Amino acid sequence: MDFSTTEAAQDLGGLVSTIVDAVCTPQHQRELDALEQRFDRELWRKLIDADVLSAAAPESLGGGGYGVLEQTAVLVALGRGLAAVPYLESVTLAAAALARFGSVELQQQWGAPAVSGQKILTVALDADMGEGPVQATSCGDGYRLTGTRTQVEYGPVADAFLVPAETQSGTGVFLIVVDDPGTAVTPLETTGLDSVGHLELSGVEVGGGRLVGGDEVADWLSLRAALGRSAFQLGVLDRGLQMTAEYARTREQFDRPIGSFQAVSQRLADGYIDVKGLRLTLTQAAWRVSEDLPADTEVATAAFWALTLGIVWRTPSFTYTVVSESISTTRCTAISWPPSRRSSRWAVLPERCGGSAANWPTHPFN
């Protein structure tokens, strides 16, 4: 079977890898960790200058017209470097949703500037960790939104948000501007040290033109978010496994590299197989989404394995993840935040954004 992706995806992924490797050095990562908001403006600017943001964006927004497979390649490359940039939230999700469902006015006012890097958008999907759905009631020719969204990625640096809310006729997705009266964003401190905000809407009034769409938009965003986070997770785990293998080749004990010990080599082999499995399920899911084929099961499968491999999943007979084994293999040097530990805290991000793996329909216990 041929699992190769498009030439454009390979080229774009290679370009992003080159940029990320040059910028995201260990010293640079430590400097980012010290910031109040872990947003890598230097890397973001280089991606803009290299036309990475626009390359895989819709042509209607001034992009290059490439699609899901190319965006997936970019996200995997960003994951390898633990890149603290809102490519998924601003370009892959928000701008693409505006291109597909939004009015021409929303596309030109918000979608195109997001693709060019002039504005930053994000989505407030919240998974299962919110305080109930945001409520949108009719108000003249528009709506009044009240409610909160927690764990909004890059919320503190965003210019606008796509927020699902409950209306009298069902779910609606609205574009909320950070300067709208009644909108408040509070930065949150997380163990991942990334840029996360708590969004509070207190009677925010918006015109009818701010309504992007209904249930179909919310479902579209949820599916693409799960796919994108799985792609980023593949990059995180692939890089973590690579670092661990290199450490096992160079770290010696009893005058022998620890990678030559049977127990260590077996655990790394398990990690290698698991990462390959995630790559396979992700490739299948991305291809089906790119072809507009039904992909709920395939995306859920990829997301399940991305979650499972990135967190410590314990059952009475099973205790194994790629990240936990990476830390176990390198724990003798894990005094503060070595690269493997940094990978581990990023690897649990999909669970915080998408909920526990046990809640996914593809979990074997479901």
UniProtKB/TrEMBL annotation:
Q: Which cofactor does it need?
A: FAD
User: Which InterPro entries is this protein grouped with?
Assistant: Acyl-CoA_Oxase/DH_mid-dom_sf (IPR046373), AcylCo_DH-like_C (IPR036250), AcylCo_DH/oxidase_C (IPR009075), AcylCoA_DH/ox_N (IPR013786), AcylCoA_DH/ox_N_sf (IPR037069), AcylCoA_DH/oxidase_NM_dom_sf (IPR009100)
Q: Where is the Acyl-CoA dehydrogenase/oxidase C-terminal domain?
A: 229-306
**Sorted UniProt keywords:** FAD, Flavoprotein, Oxidoreductase
For this UniProt entry, the molecular function terms from Gene Ontology, in alphabetical order, are: acyl-CoA dehydrogenase activity; flavin adenine dinucleotide binding
Keyword flag Flavoprotein: yes
Residues annotated as domain Acyl-CoA dehydrogenase/oxidase N-terminal: 7-117
Q: Which domain of life is it from?
A: Bacteria
Q: What does the similarity note say?
A: Belongs to the acyl-CoA dehydrogenase family.
Q: What is the protein name given in its UniProt record?
A: Acyl-CoA dehydrogenase, C-terminal domain protein
